[in-house]
Structures are given as C-alpha cells and as structure tokens.
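Researcher: I've got a protein sequence and the SMILES for zinc ion. Could you write out the 3D structure of the bound complex as structure tokens? I'd like something to compare against our soaking experiments later this week.
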Amino acid sequence: MTTQSLTRNQGLVFDVLSHAGSPLSAYSILDKLRDDGFRAPLQVYRALDKLLEFGLVHRLESINAFVACAHPDEGCHAHGLTAFTICETCGQVTEFHDHMIEDRLKGFAKDRNFKTGKTTIEIRGTCAGCA
Amino acid sequence: MTTQSLTRNQGLVFDVLSHAGSPLSAYSILDKLRDDGFRAPLQVYRALDKLLEFGLVHRLESINAFVACAHPDEGCHAHGLTAFTICETCGQVTEFHDHMIEDRLKGFAKDRNFKTGKTTIEIRGTCAGCA
DNA sequence: CAATTGATGTAATAACATTACATTCACATT
DNA sequence: AATGTGAATGTAATGTTATTACATCAATTG
Ligand SMILES: [Zn+2]
Ligand SMILES: [Zn+2]
Ligand SMILES: [Zn+2]
Ligand SMILES: [Zn+2]
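Model: Sure. Here is the predicted complex with zinc ion in place.
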C-alpha cells in the first residue's frame, strides 16, 4: 500500500495525522478538515478504517486517538504486535516492536488455546523531554 | 482494602461485576442497579474510580469495560503490570502477570528515560471454548 | 450500456464519560 | 449535643467518541 493509491478523504486524513506531532482524536481530525469539505464524523472514521487496514495508521486504545505509523514501510502492519509509549504531558508517541514480548504473549496464548487477534500494548507516562 | 469497607454504591457496583461472567460497561452496570436506586452514570463512574484505586477492579481499555480483579488478594494492584486475554465471542477475560514482559517493558522505558505510568496489555481474540 | 462494487455525503442516534452544583453522611473536635 | 471537616451521594446538563441508516456518486467490467 502506497500513499499514492489513497482516495481523497483517506489522503487528507493521513496527511493531517502525518503532520501532527501527537495523536489526534477522530473529532479533532474532523475539525482540521472542515475547510476541505469534511462535515461529518463518518467521513473521518471511514478513512481511518481504511488507513488502519493498510497499516498506515495506529489506533491508541487507551486514549481513543490515532497516530500515523512511524515506519509504514517496515511491514509494521505485518508484525502482529506494535507497542507504544505515550507521553501524557506532550502527547509524544514512540512505537516499538519487541520479539521477546511478542513470543512470550504468543506462548501464553498458545498454552491456553487462545486464538490471538489484535493485541494492544500501551505505556502511558512521561517522556524524557517532559520529565 | 477489604470488601467490608466499601460504601453502599461501591459495594453494589463491585457485586455486579463480581457476579458477571464477562466485562461490563459502566452503562450496563447502571442498568443492573436501577432497582437499587441508581439513576445517573456518575454514580457508577465514581464507584468504579474507587474500586480501580483499591485494585478490586480493572478497566479494559480496548473495549471500554470493567471486570472484577481475578485475584485481588495477591497484590495484583501492587504489581505494575496486569495483562489480559479477552474473548470477543463470549467475553471471557483471563488475567495474568508476566515478569519477563514487565522487565522488558521497564527496560525499554528506562533506556529512553520514559517514566512509566499505567501500562495496558490486552489480547483480543477467541478463547479455547469458543474456537 | 447495465451491473457491480467501493467510496462519499448527510442526518440521526447510540455509547461512553465528565462538569457543575447542591446535599447528605461519617466522624472528629469542642 | 453542637460544630466543623472531608468523603460520598443525588441530579441535571453537557461533552466526547462511535455507529446506523439511507441516498448518491464514481470507477470497473462484462
Ligand atoms: Zn507502525
Ligand atoms: Zn512528553
Ligand atoms: Zn487483578
Ligand atoms: Zn470465548
């Protein structure tokens, strides 16, 4: 998936997220796109659904917000697991992968015959700059 | 914190969660407590805040719902980290601790001078019984 | 040119959570 | 017993996040 093949709405939403320094809620994305003709939440949610599907965007479950993927070309999407630190002061989000954690969680699930779907790992706290 | 010292509202909310076989939203708790005099969401949210503080209840961020702690006497609350599997079919929640994962996340945070607050680990999927 | 499929526009509503303010209760101090 | 204090409660209103329903438009294809 390249950013080329996005539709107009998808491209606009992705662009807003890419240039934001911190996670944005669907409604704040909507506000930023009023001048581009956005009128309703659904326009944002539909675009976000696709961007999530393409692996260009992540949803942060613990704060109901969205961020552009930090490295969409590395198959971030293909990895089952992406973890995040989220600074509660400045909103800075850092995205990382950890195979040991991934294996450990896989092992736990396998031991219990639990079929793993989407996994969320989010650390909220204070980044170095805000400490 | 014993279940003795809970206030009436806290006790009612805890009781509902304890007897539910799956996570409940704040509003479904409210519905179950109408007959006990509950009228407004805030009555539920206030009780939940305290129960979370006491470590008797966990919030599942990825599904906006709450569960009673599976082992409140083991200092679950004291541990920094509790992880969950959540069956999307039947709602079964399993709670577990993993020191290796905890250490790994701590290490990652420390390396980046990120001061860790609340950490969320939730695996959504399908439990053995629902497979 | 249908027919199909994916995307869009719009309104309405549902689901989740907080703010504000008045009141009551538990309990310690006088 | 009266008073003062902080925690808990009752209630209404509002704010925030997400989905349902339905009509329309655009690209693709047989
Ligand atoms: Zn990513
Ligand atoms: Zn920060
Ligand atoms: Zn627990
Ligand atoms: Zn199940």
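Model: Chain B touches chain A through 33 residues (CB under 8 Å). The radius of gyration of chain B is 16 Å.
Researcher: Great, I'll pass this along to the crystallography team.
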